Amino acid sequence: MTRMQAWGGVAGKRVVITGATNGIGLAAATELALRGAHLTLVARSESRAREAIYRIQAARDGVAVDVLLADLASQASIRRLAAEALAKYSSIQVLINNAGAIYARRQHSPDGIELTWAVNHLAPFLLTSLLLDRLKASAPARIVTTSSGAHEGAAIPFDDLIANRGTGGRGFPRYGQTKLANILFTTELARRLAGSGVTANAYHPGFVASGFNRNNGFLMRIGMGIARPFARSAAKGAQTLVWLVDSEEAGQTSGGYFFDMRPATPSVAARDPQAAQRLWQLSEQQVAAA
């Protein structure tokens, strides 16, 4: 646990958020705008960004929302995104790594990396690394990464990280591995940030009714439709994210994992500091190679 200097809420602070054009990200961005944050949405398409801005501005008339376009599957695109953000913003107080995806069949990124791993883990790893000096210079600052209860039961396949063998690299098992990676990444990031004035935390939003997983064919859409009545709203799922970004209390912890605005205990695999350090080193190699 790390004691931090006074935060004063998110009002007036630059918040860069990925995955904010729908679902949890859009709900969080809307609430943060209501609280006075200076928002920068990272979006893949201009049309979805325009729709998100329209919905945010409908909640708070006149709020200014910036957009930076990037394909988070591409490391070159992430590097361009970071360069644009650094050129545009002299300070960045909050980075929210919220974008995520699941793929029913194995696919590869433009860098030749299994796609779920590239988007869910390497994208936040690389973007955070590229913006880290600016966040430190803007301290107090916060980094929040969206994980999931899907990490329970998962293990990082260190002997086959690119999932070239067997049935790895697709569906919920691979998704669970990436969500475990999000927690291990947060653990090691917090260790490296100790004393810097920047906190790093992860959270589980719960099962949320959103557009997530509807790009994976008929059966996946049917499954999500059946489960939808048991899901929480995007606004409910975003509550912990907003709390981690805005509240004074959340700034007293770094390296934590939260659910419903309270500390939660992740899996045994997620509490392995040696695995966190090993994953960091291998991730550095994966982003350096692109």
Short description:
The protein is an alpha/beta fold and 290 residues long. The chain is 43% helix and 13% strand.
Distance between the termini: 35 Å
Q: pLDDT average, as an integer? A: 90
Name given to the CATH architecture: 3-Layer(aba) Sandwich
Low-confidence stretches: 213-229
In CATH terms, the superfamily is NAD(P)-binding Rossmann-like Domain
N-to-C SSE string, H for helix and E for strand: EHEHEHEHEHEHHEEH
CATH class: Alpha Beta
* Number of DSSP helical runs: 8
Note the overall shape. globular
What percent strand?
A: 5-15%
Total domain modules = 1
Strand order of the largest sheet: 3-2-1-4-5-6-7-8
What's the number of extended β-strand segments? 8
Structural class: alpha/beta
Helix coverage percent = 40-55%
What does this structure look like?
The structure is a single chain. The chain is of the alpha/beta class. It has one domain: 3-Layer(aba) Sandwich (Rossmann fold), CATH 3.40.50.720. The chain has 8 helices and 8 strands; from the N terminus they run βαβαβαβαβαβααββα. It has helices spanning 23-34, 46-59, 75-88, 115-137, 171-193, 218-227, 234-246, 273-288, and strands at residues 14-18, 38-43, 65-69, 94-97, 141-146, 198-204, 257-259, 262-263. The chain has an 8-stranded mixed β-sheet, with helices on both faces. Strand 1 (14-18), helix 1 and strand 2 (38-43) form a beta-alpha-beta unit. Helix 1 crosses helix 7 (234-246), helix 3 runs parallel beside helix 4 and helix 5 crosses helix 8. The protein starts with 13 loop residues before the first strand and ends with a helix. Mean pLDDT is 90; it is low at 213-229.
